[in-house]
Automatic annotation (TrEMBL), chain A:
It comes from the Eukaryota. InterPro entries: EMC8/9, MPN. It comes from Oryzias sinensis. Signal peptide: none annotated. One of its GO terms (cellular component) is EMC complex. Belongs to the EMC8/EMC9 family. The lineage of its organism: Eukaryota, Metazoa, Chordata, Craniata, Vertebrata. Residues 28-184 form the MPN domain. It holds the Pfam family UPF0172. This is ER membrane protein complex subunit 8.
TrEMBL record, chain B:
The lineage of its organism: Eukaryota, Metazoa, Chordata, Craniata, Vertebrata. Part of the endoplasmic reticulum membrane protein complex (EMC) that enables the energy-independent insertion into endoplasmic reticulum membranes of newly synthesized membrane proteins. Component of the ER membrane protein complex (EMC). The keyword Transmembrane helix does not apply. Keywords: Endoplasmic reticulum, Membrane, Repeat, TPR repeat. TPR repeats lie at residues 155-188. Belongs to the EMC2 family. This is ER membrane protein complex subunit 2. It is a peripheral membrane protein. Its main location: endoplasmic reticulum. Residues 90-199 form the EMC2 TPR-like domain. It comes from the Eukaryota. It comes from Oryzias sinensis (Chinese medaka). InterPro entries: EMC2-like, TPR-like_helical_dom_sf, TPR_EMC2, TPR_rpt.
Amino acid sequence: MLLLKLCILIESRQLGVDIHFSPETMPIQLTSQAYCKMLLHAAKYPNCAVNGLLVAEKTKDRKKDSEPVLCVDCLPLFHGTLALAPMLEVALTLIDTWCKENNYIIAGYYQANERKKDSRPNQVAEKVAARISENFSDAAIVMIDNSRLTMSCFEPIVIIYDHHENKWKSRDVTLDSFEDWSEAQKITSALLEGRSYENLIDFDNHLDDLRNDWTNPMINKSVLDLC
Amino acid sequence: MASVSEMYDVGWEEMRDKLRKWREDNRRNSEQIVDVGEELISEHASKLGDDIWIIYEQVMIAALDCSRDDLALTCLQELRKQFPDSHRVKRLAGMRLEALERYEEANKHYDAILQDDPTNTAARKRKIAILKAQGKSTEAIRELNEYLEQFVGDQEAWHELSELYINEHDYGKAAFCLEELMMTNPHNHLYCEQYAEVKYTQGGLENMELSRKYFAQALRLNNRNMRALFGLYMSASHIASSPKVSAKVKKDNIKYAAWAATQINRAYKLAGRGTKETKYSVKAVEEMLESMQITMS
């Protein structure tokens, strides 16, 4: 297994971010568990940027134009300063091993920016996604639209970006972007109201105390109970 | 809805002490502060004595975080009545305007304070916070630099500046800020460890070696700092697998990395007592050690 080396360079780059196109890459789909844990992470740290990974089940043969990639779970990584490399490398390495044990593959990256009105992917998002793309060509960036984050979650508040012609372009998020939107809506709303985000563990929490479990078994159970 | 005192079976003294602890630790757990503070203020105000004023301030700021303008206004009004000409209270009024995104008015408030008292650091820092909130990072950085020329000892400001630089990917300048902090706080393991992370991110062999040294230093200051331990492992591994180092340097760094891996293993075993998560992490560490040996040969 290779050490994943991530260099975040100082170069400034033009961010290629365009809106709304018809992608040829495989669209990703989110399960309720993946969606709600992302939002819980953002809700836990309203004054910070947060980020994390999305994982999908590994399938033997991946044909294009067949089913969309189902992101079954989400692994919250960091809050606050996202632009430092060492702990990110550690997290990617450990999560990579965990994925192998569970027959998962890292399929996407999510981020919620610090400021309410800022929901564009930045250099960190692009770098991590590029890294993920080396092992999974259809990797997506999922940005949380902070300005629409509410307790009731009446509409999906993610913006999904695909890599296309060397740029990251956003796609329309429809109900098809979810395995079951009404279930996702119901569960996320319930967990937000119940303040379950207080118990969400991200990788930062894990580094503070190794007993904190970044797979979040308790929250996963709550999700299952609400299904 | 059940009150805090009912839910947690605590008396007003415990609630007051909890608020004090959160103040001392400078915690931003605003939802909890609002829950506890609101109840304390509405039910037990008379018992709090002079503490009530600092509690009003603490609860007001937390209320702003939670969009509870009603509560924030109540606290502000009490403080205004008690301290009519206070700059400290004016600053809180400014913060409320910030929370309502009325930045121009907030800036006017702070400018008025600074007219009256040019050395008022709180007002200056709030103006910088407004720039940050508006996404004007370059201006925020410039203003903060100017501020620090005058108030060289303000550690909170140095730390804020280091974060602003990191977000702009200007790691060299972020390192400079952390160096200032390390100089004045040589025993603070967190600054050492953050400095090491910045150096690591900057990249290049020299920075990686510095990074390893500072991760090691952070560990000496606090041997339970897991980030420092992982950082030591990662930086030593990178150096050992670099084609540019001598055989001796390679050998030394393999030793450091191996030591770190053992310590990480131990830490996980201690923490996990055989839970599933531990097994994966232990396995990951073993694999990390193995992969390093592959790149060695």
